[in-house]
Write a structure and sequence with these properties.
Radius of gyration: 26 Å
Structural class: alpha/beta
Strand content: 15-25%
Low-confidence stretches: 1-64, 66-88
């Protein structure tokens, strides 16, 4: 192949490398070259007598009935040993050519572990070798079909891992802050950094995150980073699609993880603790001495207990229907517990608070009943903070007259602010103010994720379960 050869494919489909059989064009024939997949980035043909490049383009355009994009190759493009280059592949030095990820296909269908092409980060993004991923109720809502989301998708959205590569053209400040080899934790809300709300510091309601990731299952160029290894079929991303061996995360969603903190337990910082901190710090503006009630003592609810204790709450009331969860709540800072299956929640809270109600009540379950209980439990002028997601279309009831006359505040809160809050949460864990080990009640293997979600659905996980992917 001394002279440049004309090689073309009809198109790139959806921004990803879809390659049909390549055609080599001369004056008399079109040769179909069988593709082979190798650890390279394009296809190179065997030597063929070729027409001039311009004539090849014209002949190809007539063949397909429309313009065709060309790329020139010379012998320097060919891999050593005569191998062909894979137009769609992406491979890291010393890393496998593919990875595994856990895929949700549709409600009622079991999750499966599939092989994927190695995901490729773009500018401002990093590729992470995932070490651990938490099992969260938000994923479960998607799996059960209660929250509409693009499918198929890789679930999992609270992760820790090691940075293995930066996307091309990533800002030098990012590469210095997060060098290859860094241990990191990722927030499930991945702020774009540029929208109206991010510029104002309200990254927890980032426009791009909700418009692209939560609405379409993509990152902020409108494209997923996940494609099945065999077929090239696109698979969407719930946040970063963290229940996989590698994932792509915008750098804005990351914080460095010190060597003193373990990968497994630290994964919950990115959602369970992140959500609790956003509720207490930003939505409730919790002050030392406030009385707090937390309704729903799962992974996020137990994190709320610890954050309330760290902020100096005077009374911390845990509410649930399972005695084992309430017993665990006492070890995490609850001063009182209420079994909602046995007692009237609002009446018991007023009894504990000498008839007043709490300054802040947090709903961490996402049920219409617990929504109403939360509003009823706050004092006049108090704050009812809603952080539990519900099935789509669920409606909560409220006493309008009391809301108006007694200035009861109902506030929604989805999470915290990654760039300013996630490093703070790492510090809380590093100093022991937040006890990560006590918050994680189960560790499981990558292959056991489906069983963990099933147990979560049946109330068998007391705190937070984490999948170890290392």
């Amino acid at each position: 192949m001394g002279e440049p050869q004309a090689i073309f494919s009809p198109a790139l489909v959806g921004g990803r490398a879809w390659v049909p059989p390549l055609f080599l064009v001369d004056e008399s024939a079109v040769y179909t070259i069988k593709r082979e997949r190798r650890a390279c980035s394009a296809l190179v043909c065997a030597p063929v007598a070729m027409a001039p490049f311009s004539r090849s383009r014209a002949l190809a355009s007539r063949l397909f009935g429309r313009p065709v994009a060309f790329r020139r190759f010379s012998s320097t493009d060919a891999p050593k040993g005569g191998g062909r280059i894979d137009h769609g592949g992406y491979h890291l030095n010393g890393a496998p050519s593919f990875m595994r990820g856990t895929v949700f296909w549709e409600p009622g269908k079991p999750l499966t572990i599939e092989e994927f092409q190695m995901p490729r980060p773009k500018a401002g993004e990093v590729l992470i070798k995932t070490k651990a991923c938490g099992i969260c109720h938000s994923d479960l809502h998607v799996i059960k079909g209660e929250l509409p989301f693009s499918a198929p998708c890789v679930v999992g959205h609270e992760i820790t891992g090691e940075i293995v590569e930066h996307g091309a053209h990533t800002d030098a400040g990012v590469t210095r802050r997060f060098p290859v080899g860094s241990h990191v934790v990722g927030a499930f809300i991945m702020p774009c950094g540029n929208c109206h709300f991010c510029v104002k510091g309200q990254e927890d309601i980032c426009e791009s995150f909700f418009a692209y990731n939560r609405s379409k299952g993509t990152l902020y160029d409108g494209e997923t980073r996940l494609f099945l290894h065999g077929s090239g079929k696109p698979v969407y991303m719930y946040s970063m699609g963290g229940l996989a061996e590698y994932c792509v995360v915008p750098a804005n969603a990351l914080a460095l993880l010190p060597d003193s903190l373990p990968y497994t337990e630290s994964a919950i910082l990115g959602c369970a603790v992140f959500t609790a901190y956003g509720a207490m710090r930003h939505a409730a503006d919790l002050r030392a001495g406030d009385a707090v009630a937390i309704i729903g003592i799962g992974g996020v609810g137990t994190s709320c207990l610890q954050i309330a204790r760290a902020f100096g709450a005077s009374e911390i009331i845990a509410v649930d229907v399972q005695d084992d969860k309430l017993q665990n709540a006492k070890t995490l800072g609850a001063t009182h517990t209420i079994n909602a299956a046995k007692e009237n929640v609002a009446d018991r809270i007023r009894e504990i608070t000498r008839g007043m109600g709490v300054d802040v009540a947090v709903e961490a379950l996402g049920k219409p009943l617990t929504f109403m209980q939360t509003v009823q439990s706050v004092r006049d002028g108090g704050k009812a903070v809603m952080i539990g997601l519900s099935a789509a279309g669920a409606v909560g009831e409220v006493d309008i007259n009391r809301l108006v006359r007694r200035q009861v505040k109902i506030i929604g809160s989805y999470g915290a602010r990654a760039r300013q809050d996630l490093p703070m949460l790492v510090k809380l864990a590093e100093t022991g103010i937040f006890n990560l080990e006590a918050a994680v009640s189960r560790k499981c293997k990558f292959e056991e994720a489906t069983a963990a979600y099933d147990d979560l659905n049946h109330g068998k996980i007391i705190g937070r379960a984490v999948v170890e992917i290392m």
